[in-house]
Amino acid sequence: MVRKRKKRAWQVNCVICDDDPLFAMQLEERIKDQCVLNDWEYHCRQIDAQTLLELDFSTVDVLFLDIEMPEINGLEAAKQIRQRYADLLLVFVTGFIDYAPSGYKVNAFRYLLKSKLDEELPECLMNIQEKLYSNQESIWVKTIDGEKCVRLKSIVYLEGTSKKHTLFYLYEFGKTVHIECLGLLSFYEKQLQDKGFLKIQKSYLVNMEYIRKMANYHAVLKTKEELKTSISDFQEKRQLFLSWKEKHL
User: Fold this and answer.
1) What is the rounded (10 degree) CA torsion for 181, 41, 57, 224?
2) Strands in the chain per DSSP E
3) Helices 117-134 and 21-37 meet at what angle, rounded to 10?
4) Whether the Cβ atoms of residue 133 and residue 152 lie closer than 8 Å to each other
5) Residue 216 carries which DSSP code?
6) pLDDT tens, position by position, 97-118
7) Contact 97/50 with Cβ under 8 angstroms?
8) Bridge-partner residues for 111, per DSSP?
9) Distance CA 195, CA 190 (A)
10) Which end of the chain is more exposed for a tag (fewer CB within 10 A), N or C?
């Protein structure tokens, strides 16, 4: 059953961009401490200003961004990033609160004062958790290690295996990873059929947000993978994808 994510299964993918590597490391450690304290899963990555405008933020939840950096103005960079990633949460990290009015232009989620990091970060992370999962859906799956909650937007596709298991392929920080889950593909298909997923053949159930095009009996994905489709009903599947794309993209 598709349902709202519970607090105990929360996961956050975040990126830190700060010209002070020592502070960036400190911030990452504080984020780690809070996630461990609350039993949250997390993925955190530090980048420099040169990488900021080149990074794919499609699977990033939060960007902790320094406003004052020698190489680039954080506010100006945020404007460009916001144009491409409307749902990305922007948390400005600064030594001065004077920039707050400018943040409205890029829909900043929060400001963190560097001098009050230990005081403000816990509440900030709790607010992020509430924001991320108040409207987003996720799916509970059973793995060998126990129950896990996976956000639908991170799923690229599902593959049924001969072992009566299903592989979930997830897109995280520019690469595809997979987890092996108990249960047949048909079990998950029933839960995801009205959530933007398309069964392109008996072994593959694909998140249509990740399909770039369907041609020559293949689904070409944004992750640069190509999956074989069913030949007999290829045109029907392709039309379903095109109809969905017209409504959602």
Assistant:
1) -20
2) 2-4, 11-17, 41-47, 62-66, 89-94, 110-113, 137-143, 146-151, 155-160, 165-172, 175-182, 197-201, 204-207, 211-215, 218-221, 226-228
3) 60
4) no
5) T
6) 665 555 555 778 988 899 999 9
7) no
8) 92
9) 10
10) N
DSSP assignment of 16-62 equals EE-S-HHHHHHHHHHHHHHHHHTT-EEEEEEE-HHHHTTS--TT--E
Q: What number of other Cβ atoms are within 10 A of residue 223's Cβ?
A: 15
| Length of the chain counted residue by residue | 249
* 103: number of Cβ within 10 Å: 20
**CA-CA distance, 153 to 155, in Å (whole number)?**
6
* Coil, strand or helix at 116: helix
**Host H or E run for residue 242:** helix 234-248
Nearest Cα to 193, choosing from 148, 229, 234, 139? 139
For residue 231, the SS3 value is coil
Cα–Cα distances (Å) from 89 to 11, 46, 62, 108, 127, in that order, read 14, 16, 5, 7, 11
Which contiguous run of DSSP H or E holds residue 198? strand 197-201
Distance CA 82, CA 137 (A): 23
Q: Give the span between the Cα atoms of 88 and 190, in whole angstroms.
A: 30
Q: Which of these, 198, 201, 218, 199, lies nearest to 209 by C-alpha position?
A: 198
CB 62 within 8 A of CB 35: no
Q: Using CA atoms, how far apart are residues 33 and 60, in angstroms rounded to an integer?
A: 19
Rounded Cα gap, residues 1 and 3, in angstroms: 6
Give the residue, 172 or 91, on which the prediction is more confident: 91
89 is written with which tokens? 């949460």
CB count in 10 Å sphere of residue 20: 13
